[in-house]
Specification:
two-stranded antiparallel ribbon; mainly alpha; about 450 residues; 17 helices; disordered N terminus; about 75% helix
C-alpha cells in the first residue's frame, strides 16, 4: 500500500498552521478586548473623567510608536516565531499590573505595556501569515486570521462587562461599593488568565516558524520555491534594507495605512468610550459589553464573506464602500438612540469595520517591496498606533468640551476621508472576476529608494 504525499494545491498544510494561529489570536485578542474596557472602568473608579480616560487609552499606543519599525526590520531578517510568546507574556504582565494600579499614572503605564505586548504579537502573527501565504491567498488568509481577532473581540467585552458589573453589584450588595461603582480588577486578572490559554497553540507555531526562515519556503512576495541562492539573497537584503521612504512610496501603501488607521482608531475609541457613553445614558456595563460583542460578531461575518465580496466588488471598491458606510454609521452613534437602535447601528458598523483590517493587510503586503513586507506591516501598525494616540487624545478633548458621544462625529469624518483616499488609489493587485480574483500584471517594486514603474495608471 502506497501513501500518497500531499498534492501541491492541497490547502491542508496552510490550514493547520493558520488554525493554530487563529486559535491563539482568539485568546490574545479576547484578553486585550477584556482589558481595554476594564481599564476604562478602573480609571473611572480612580476618579478619572472623560478626558483622562482618553489619555489613558492613548497610552496603549505610545511604546509601539517607537519600536514598531525596528521590530519589523528584525522580522524581515529573522524568524517571526519568538515574537508570539513574547507578546503574550507582555499582555499577561500588562493586564495583571493594570488590575493592581493604585493611581492613574501607573494605570497609563501598564496600559502602555499592554499595547507593547499587542504590537509584538501582531507583528509576529501578521508576518507569519504573509510569509506562508501565496499572493492570491492574502485576502482569504488575512480574513481568516482576523476572524480570530473578531472572535476575541466578541467574547472579551461580554466577559469584561459581566465581571465588572457582577463584581460591582456584589460589592454593593455586601455594603462595600455602591451599585454605580465598578470593580475592574477581577476583569483584568481574568484577561491575564485568558492570555495564558494562548500558549496551548503558540508552542507548536513557534517551533514551525523557527524552522521556516524568510528564505526557506518561498521567496518573499512571489510564492515561488526558494532555490540554493536564497540564503545569499537574504544576506544581501540584510546588508541593504529597503528605506522606509521607499516603502511608503509604493503605490497603495499610504492609502492602505491611512484606511487601517481610520478603521482601528474607530474600533479603539468605540471600545474605550462606549462604556463612558453608557454611563451617561444609563446603560448597564453588561449591556455595553453585549453591544461591543455584537459589533465584533458582525465583523466575524464580514471577514468570513471577504473572499466573495472582493471577488464581486474588487478589493479597493469594497474598502471604499465599507469605510464610507462606517463613517455615516459612526456619526449616527452621537445621537441618543434607544438600545435596540444602537444595537442595529453597531451591528452594521461592525460589518463595515470588519473588512477594513484584512483588506489593508493584503493591500500593504501586496504593494510593499518583497524584501520588506514585515517592515511594511510594521509601518501599518505604526500608523494604527499613531491613530490610537491621536484619536483617543482628541476624543478626550472633544468629549470634555462637548460630551462623551461627540468623538464619534470626528471618527465619522476620519472614515469618510479614508474612503476618499482609497478611492483615488486604483487596485493594482486584483480586480473582480466572475466568481474569483484575477491577478493583474505585476509592476516593478521600489528597491533601494529608486522608484520604477511599468504601470503609470493612478
Amino acid at each position: 500500500m502506497t501513501s500518497a504525499g500531499p498534492l501541491p494545491d492541497s490547502p491542508a498544510p496552510p490550514r493547520r498552521w493558520l488554525l493554530r494561529l487563529v486559535t491563539s489570536f482568539v485568546f490574545t485578542q479576547g484578553a486585550v478586548s477584556m482589558a481595554r474596557p476594564a481599564i476604562s472602568y478602573h480609571a473611572l473608579e480612580l476618579g478619572a473623567g472623560a478626558r483622562a480616560v482618553g489619555v489613558i487609552s492613548a497610552a496603549f499606543a505610545l511604546l509601539p510608536l517607537v519600536v514598531a519599525v525596528p521590530l519589523g526590520r528584525r522580522t524581515d531578517r529573522r524568524s517571526c516565531g519568538p515574537l508570539l510568546p513574547i507578546g503574550a507574556a507582555l499582555l499577561l504582565a500588562g493586564s495583571v499590573l493594570a488590575g493592581t494600579a493604585p493611581s492613574l499614572v501607573l494605570l497609563a503605564a501598564w496600559s502602555a505595556l499592554l499595547g507593547l505586548g499587542h504590537l509584538v504579537f501582531m507583528i509576529g502573527a501578521q508576518s507569519l501569515v504573509a510569509r506562508q501565504s501565496e499572493p492570491d491567498q492574502y485576502d482569504r488568509n488575512f480574513g481568516h486570521f482576523t476572524i480570530g481577532g473578531s472572535m476575541g473581540q466578541l467574547i472579551g467585552p461580554v466577559l469584561a462587562g459581566w465581571l465588572v458589573g457582577g463584581a460591582g453589584a456584589a460589592g454593593g450588595a455586601a455594603g462595600g461599593q455602591g451599585t454605580g461603582e465598578h470593580s475592574s480588577s477581577v476583569a483584568l486578572f481574568a484577561a491575564g488568565a485568558l492570555t495564558l490559554c494562548s500558549y496551548a497553540t503558540l508552542w507548536r507555531i513557534e517551533g514551525q516558524a523557527l524552522r521556516r526562515t524568510p528564505g526557506a519556503g518561498r521567496t518573499a512576495g512571489t510564492g515561488k520555491a526558494a532555490g540554493p541562492s536564497a540564503p545569499s539573497a537574504a544576506t544581501a537584503e540584510e546588508a541593504a534594507p529597503v528605506p522606509v521612504v521607499g516603502i511608503l512610496r509604493s503605490r497603495g501603501v499610504p492609502a492602505g495605512i491611512f484606511a487601517s488607521l481610520a478603521v482601528l482608531s474607530t474600533t479603539d475609541v468605540l471600545t474605550a468610550y462606549l462604556p463612558v457613553v453608557g454611563e451617561e445614558r444609563g446603560i448597564a456595563p453588561g449591556v455595553v459589553g453585549l453591544l461591543l460583542s455584537l459589533r465584533a460578531a458582525a465583523s466575524v461575518l464580514s471577514r468570513a464573506a471577504l473572499p466573495r465580496m472582493t471577488a464581486w466588488l474588487g478589493r479597493q471598491m469594497f474598502l471604499v464602500l465599507s469605510c464610507l458606510a462606517a463613517g455615516v454609521l459612526c456619526a449616527l452613534l452621537a445621537v441618543p438612540l434607544p438600545v435596540w437602535t444602537l444595537a442595529l447601528a453597531l451591528a452594521l458598523l461592525g460589518f463595515c469595520l470588519g473588512a477594513g483590517q484584512p483588506l489593508t493587510m493584503s493591500t500593504v503586503v501586496q504593494a510593499a517591496p518583497d524584501s520588506a513586507r514585515s517592515t511594511a506591516l510594521a509601518l501599518r501598525l505604526t500608523g494604527n498606533r499613531l491613530g490610537q494616540v491621536a484619536a483617543p487624545a482628541g476624543a478626550g478633548l472633544l468629549a470634555g468640551a462637548a460630551g462623551a458621544a461627540a468623538p464619534f462625529v470626528l471618527l465619522g469624518v476620519l472614515l469618510v476621508g479614508a474612503s476618499g483616499t482609497a478611492a483615488r488609489t486604483r487596485d493594482g493587485m486584483y480586480e473582480a472576476g466572475p466568481g474569483r480574483l484575477r491577478r493583474r500584471a505585476p509592476r516593478q517594486r521600489v528597491t533601494h529608494g529608486t522608484r520604477r514603474r511599468t504601470d503609470t495608471s493612478n
